[in-house]
Amino acid sequence: MKFLSAGESTDQAYTKELRELLEAEWGVFGSFEQQDFGLKAPFPIVAVEGDTLLGGLVFSLWQDPATKVAAIWINGLFVKPKYRNKGIASSLVRCAMDGQSTLYVLTDVEPLYSSLGWQLLSRGKDGVVLRHQI
Known about the structure:
The structure is a single chain. By secondary structure, the protein is α+β, with helices and mostly antiparallel strands. The chain has one domain (2-133): Aminopeptidase (3-Layer(aba) Sandwich), CATH 3.40.630. Helix content is 22%, strand content 40%. The protein has helices spanning 12-26, 88-97, 110-114; strands at residues 2-5, 35-36, 39-40, 45-49, 52-63, 70-79, 102-107, 119-124, 127-133. It has a seven-stranded mixed sheet with strand order 1-4-5-6-7-9-8, sandwiched between helices. Strands 2-3 form a two-stranded antiparallel sheet. Strand 4 and strand 5 (52-63) form a beta hairpin.
């Protein structure tokens, strides 16, 4: 299994398939290529084995809960059902954490992020907000 940043033209098929999986699960997703105030969202990260997409993670830009300036958030994390419970989601999140000094997520899967050292910021009806900070 390998993890790729799906920003290169050779990885567009993975990006397209990942978008289809995310939208089937949660509805329409915005552009994966966001930029705001000099901050650019990282390319999606995909987990592949051979030519098979196992899952992926996408980012977005949204406000830092404290400062209200643009920040990088994990916007979607999906692993195909037959590949779940094999550590792929954790590995994708770890890949997202590499090279990012601060990341945020709004999720209903708090244990996944807490087990990786993310800090709980708030709880609400839509889920929990957590932060990873180096």
